[in-house]
Write a structure and sequence with these properties.
Oligomer: single chain
Radius of gyration: 24 Å
Helix content: 55-70%
Largest sheet: none
Strand content: under 5%
Order of helices and strands: HH
Structural class: mainly alpha
Length: 101
């Protein structure tokens, strides 16, 4: 599997290309100028997307690691057939809400 940050950087580059083409056409620039500026914009946005993609991949990996570290087994000390956990001698703690984006 390839690194996801490369996909994020490519999306940034293509978005920069599309924005530059649309902006150039709206203003009424010649096609050569629009395409040359769009290619430069695509390259610049790709280079900016690499560190942003790396940071986002790192943040997601850290969140997943902390989420897995905070989880406990639902059958810990309980009956494996019912999936209930024994609460004898344990204090109830409020679980952190999970934000779904």
């Amino acid at each position: 599997m390839t690194n996801p940050f490369k996909h994020i950087a490519a999306i940034f580059g293509l978005t920069g290309f599309v924005v530059a083409v649309v902006a150039g056409l709206v203003v009424g620039n010649p096609a050569e100028t629009v395409l040359s500026r769009a290619i430069v914009s695509m390259f610049a946005c790709y280079l900016c997307g690499i560190p942003l993609g790396m940071a986002s991949v790192w943040a997601v990996q850290q969140y997943i690691a902390s989420f897995k570290g905070n989880r406990t087994s639902p059958t810990l000390g309980g009956d494996a057939t019912t999936g209930t956990a024994s609460t004898r001698g344990q204090t109830e703690t409020a679980e952190e809400p999970v934000m779904i984006v």
